[in-house]
């Protein structure tokens, strides 16, 4: 592959640069360096995808924004900052705010442009270790979303040392527990359900399907962050009682790895929204008595806000 320099464009994105093996799952299509730590990344959202399918009838799945941000961050880290593809890439935080109308499927192309600014770069012995990204996504010249990440890169050797005996879980099948009904979480296929009934109302157990082609893109020794994002979205959908939940705002932080051999418990609660016509849900994950992630999601739907208020009244009663 040609050496990428300022002003030059690469039109080929290797799957290892975005940690995806299936070409259908690779969202970035190329990148251009605009300045020292600023890049323009071209991307294409899949017109049809078995997992990232339209929601609420006519909207692109907003979690595609999160996946675009995730893949773009890794692409820049590997292609421009020299992070070896065998290094472990951990995102401690990811956030986005999307325009609900701009997510419309019809009338717009699938081509997305991502303007990326990298900051808080921390290198040790010539290797990038910490990175913050800030992004603006546009589509057909129209503002689509903003977002960013806080990430850490760990060498393969250091990662094996950190994880120790946990590395034995790499590629090991996990017993697949029975999930909730797909329609309750806005899904059509049972294999896309990532929540199982919990021990009390408002609680669910994380359902881990290591054979899922999108959420487990390769053998892993812990639960991938994108699976936890989907768990948060499904928990919010269940909490509000509407399969049309469209989280146009999401902010997630991860505090530790979620292990494969211990139950992870998901809980959700409705929060006062930033506007009267919004529905906001806070989702938390705990494992072995310790918090593992926190995610806040907001949908701009007035109908969902009304549904949320009704649900609050029923819970209070």
UniProtKB/TrEMBL annotation:
- A Pfam family (short name) is AfsA
Annotated SUPFAM superfamilies? Thioesterase/thiol ester dehydrase-isomerase (SSF54637)
What is the top-level taxon of the source organism? Bacteria
Segments forming domain A-factor biosynthesis hotdog: 17-153, 184-295
Concerning InterPro entries, the annotation shows:
AfsA-like (IPR047757), AfsA_hotdog_dom (IPR005509), HotDog_dom_sf (IPR029069)
What protein is this chain from?
Answer: ScbA protein
Q: What is the lineage of its organism?
A: Bacteria, Bacillati, Actinomycetota, Actinomycetes, Kitasatosporales
């Amino acid at each position: 592959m040609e050496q990428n320099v300022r002003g030059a464009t690469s039109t080929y994105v290797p799957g290892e640069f975005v940690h995806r093996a299936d070409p259908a799952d690779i969202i970035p299509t190329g990148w251009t360096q605009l300045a020292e730590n600023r890049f323009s990344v071209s991307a294409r959202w899949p017109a049809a995808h078995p997992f990232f399918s339209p929601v609420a009838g006519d909207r692109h799945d907003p979690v595609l924004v999160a996946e675009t941000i995730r893949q773009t961050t890794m692409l820049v880290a590997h292609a421009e900052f020299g992070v070896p593809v065998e290094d472990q890439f951990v995102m401690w935080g990811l956030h986005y705010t999307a325009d609900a109308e701009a997510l419309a499927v019809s009338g717009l192309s699938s081509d997305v442009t991502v303007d990326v600014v990298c900051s808080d770069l921390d290198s040790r012995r010539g290797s990038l270790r910490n990175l913050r990204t800030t992004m603006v996504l546009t589509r057909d010249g129209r503002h689509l979303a903003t977002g960013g990440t806080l990430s850490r890169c760990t060498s393969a050797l250091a990662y094996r040392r950190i994880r120790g005996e946990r590395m034995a879980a790499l590629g090991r099948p996990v017993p697949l527990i029975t999930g909730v009904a797909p329609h309750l979480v806005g899904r059509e296929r049972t294999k896309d359900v990532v929540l199982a009934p919990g021990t009390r109302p408002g609680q669910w157990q994380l359902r881990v399907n290591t054979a899922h082609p999108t959420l487990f893109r390769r053998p892993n020794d812990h639960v991938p962050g994108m699976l936890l994002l989907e768990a948060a979205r499904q928990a919010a959908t269940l909490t509000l009682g509407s399969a049309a939940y469209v989280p146009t705002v999401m902010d997630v932080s991860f505090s530790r790895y979620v292990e494969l051999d211990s139950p992870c418990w998901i809980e959700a609660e409705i929060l006062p929204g930033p506007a009267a016509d919004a529905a906001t849900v806070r989702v938390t994950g705990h494992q072995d008595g310790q918090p593992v992630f926190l995610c806040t999601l907001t949908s701009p739907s007035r109908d969902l806000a009304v549904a949320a208020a009704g649900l609050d009244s029923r819970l209070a009663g």
